[in-house]
C-alpha cells in the first residue's frame, strides 16, 4: 500500500469515528442518563419512544390558542424502561434551558413526553421534537408557573438523580 493510500484510509477512518451514530429508526432525540440500570447513558429515537406505547393527552396550555391533543410516551413508562431510580429528573433542552421535575410528578399526574400535537410530529419550531406536557385541564392545580416551568420543550437530555 502506498503512503498516500494509507494516509487516505487513515483520514477516512478517523472521519467515520467522528460522525455521531444514529439508530436505524432515525436520529437520537433523547438521551437518558444518571441513576439508571447499567449506569450507561441510553439514547432514544422517536420510533423507540413510539414502540413503548403511545398515550394521548388533550389539554390547553399557556403556549397554544386552543386545546391540543398531544401524543407521546408517559414519562413513568420511560423511567421504567431504563430502570430509573431517584427523586429528581434534570431536563435539558436543545438551547441548554434547564429544569427539574420531581419523579413523583411522572406517576401522580401522568406527565407525557410528547412528540406529536394534533396528529403532527413536533419539529424544533413547534417546541419539539420532545415537549414535556402536564395534563393541565385534568388537574387545575397544575395551572401555575411552577408546573409551566417544568413543561420543558425541545427536551434533549434527562438525568435521574
Automatic annotation (TrEMBL):
* InterPro entries according to UniProt: OxRdtase_Mopterin-bd_dom, OxRdtase_Mopterin-bd_sf
Per UniProt, the keywords (alphabetical) are: Signal
Query: Record's Gene3D superfamilies?
Result: Oxidoreductase, molybdopterin-binding domain (3.90.420.10)
The superkingdom listed in its UniProt entry is Bacteria
Domain Oxidoreductase molybdopterin-binding as annotated: residue spans:
58-134
Q: Where is the signal peptide?
A: 1-24
UniProt cross-references to Pfam families, sorted A to Z: Oxidored_molyb (PF00174)
Name of this chain's protein? Oxidoreductase molybdopterin-binding domain-containing protein
Q: What organism does this protein naturally occur in?
A: Stappia indica
Amino acid at each position: 500500500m502506498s503512503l498516500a493510500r494509507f494516509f487516505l484510509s487513515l483520514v477516512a477512518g478517523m472521519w467515520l469515528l467522528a460522525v455521531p451514530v444514529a439508530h436505524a429508526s432515525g436520529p437520537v432525540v433523547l438521551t437518558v442518563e444518571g441513576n439508571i440500570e447499567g449506569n450507561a447513558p441510553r439514547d432514544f429515537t422517536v420510533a423507540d419512544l413510539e414502540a413503548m406505547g403511545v398515550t394521548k393527552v388533550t389539554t390547553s396550555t399557556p403556549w397554544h390558542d386552543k386545546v391540543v391533543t398531544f401524543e407521546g410516551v408517559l414519562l413513568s413508562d420511560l423511567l421504567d424502561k431504563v430502570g430509573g431510580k431517584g427523586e429528581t429528573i434534570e431536563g435539558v433542552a436543545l438551547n441548554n434551558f434547564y429544569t427539574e421535575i420531581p419523579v413523583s410528578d411522572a406517576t401522580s399526574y401522568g406527565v407525557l413526553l410528547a412528540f406529536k400535537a394534533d396528529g403532527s410530529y413536533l419539529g424544533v419550531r413547534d417546541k419539539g421534537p420532545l415537549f414535556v406536557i402536564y395534563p393541565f385541564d385534568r388537574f387545575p392545580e397544575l395551572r401555575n408557573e411552577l408546573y409551566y416551568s417544568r413543561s420543558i420543550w425541545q427536551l434533549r437530555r434527562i438525568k435521574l438523580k
